[in-house]
Amino acid sequence: MTTRRKFIGGLGAFGGLAMLPTEMFPTLMAMEDGAPPTEYKIQPLPYDYKDLEPHIDEATMKVHHDKHHQAYADGLNKALAGLAAARDKNDFAAVGSLSRQLAFHAGGFHNHNIFWNNMAPTGKGGGGQPSGKLADAIARDFGSFEKFSAHFTAATTTVEGNGWGVLAHHTGLKRLVIFTMMNQQLGPPVGTTPLLMCDVWEHAYYLKYQNKRADYVKAWWNVVNWKDVAQRLDAAS
Ligand code: MN
Fold first, then answer.
1. pLDDT digits 0-9 by tens, 181-200
2. SS3 for 70?
């Protein structure tokens, strides 16, 4: 049970489930109690490190996934353990700091689970334009796909410092919204479920693009996995 829980937790709330053939992971569908894992673990990418070339390079994917994402998982587990220890000892002096660490690392862990699955190799699920319900919602809420992509690119490219560009479904407003998020957690409107996230921390692009973030964001569109985005909209709405 522990192993199964760890595995499922590593996928995030829904990130990755739709991408992975269930026959590879028979225990996934057998999990019925919905309990969280005792320890969060990162999962392998749904493609090879080099498969997003030439848009996102192999060296960046390796360090981003194996080192940065791992550090967020470690930080999340550490914050949760610290909070559990505080409750056990009835000593809540560090709860303010631990709560901030939890928000940051839970964001880093979950955002990257979405980010990896939001991408696919160009021509093998990555790139092009959305279709169906997602395309209709984008046209309805942003005017056209071209207006949407220009809006998302502008928002994402101009994030100050580290952060993310996010396309989300807003449950309360019943529409798609684009917002930017600072760090891993600051700024998302309450009521939103992320559908598409573009990481603009320098670790996401600096090895290949250096200071040219706009070039990275422009290239990133070539690896967007619209099927994954559409599945997230279906789940959210
Ligand atoms: Mn990142």
1. 999 999 999 999 999 999 99
2. helix
**Which pLDDT tens digit goes with each residue over 155-169?**
999 999 999 999 999
User: What angle, 0 to 180 degrees and rounded to 10, lies between the N-to-C axes of helices 95-117 and 70-89?
Assistant: 150
- Rounded to the nearest angstrom, the distance between the alpha carbon of 67 and the centre of ligand 1 is 10
User: How far, in Å, is the centroid of ligand 1 from the Cα of 31?
Assistant: 29
| C-alpha to C-alpha distance for 233 and 170, rounded to whole angstroms | 10
pLDDT band at 32 (very low <50, low <70, confident <90, very high): low
What are the tokens at 74? 């470690």
Strand 163-170's sheet: what is its strand order?
175-182, 163-170, 192-199
**Residue 12, phi-psi category: left (phi > 0), alpha (psi -120 to 50), beta (remainder):** left
Q: Which residue has the tokens 């709860």?
A: 95
CB 200 within 8 A of CB 157: yes
Cis, bond preceding 194 (omega within 30 deg of 0): no
Mean pLDDT of 206-221: 98
CA 30 to ligand 1 center in whole angstroms: 31
Beta-strand relationship, 175-182 and 192-199: unpaired
Q: What's the 203 CA to ligand 1 centre distance in angstroms?
A: 6
Q: What phi and psi, each to the nearest 5 degrees, are found at residue 93?
A: -60, -35
Rounded distance from Cα 121 to ligand 1 centre (Å): 18
How many whole angstroms from 66 Cα to the centroid of ligand 1? 11
Ligand 1 center to residue 139 CA distance, Å? 29
Per-residue pLDDT at 27 exceeds 50: no
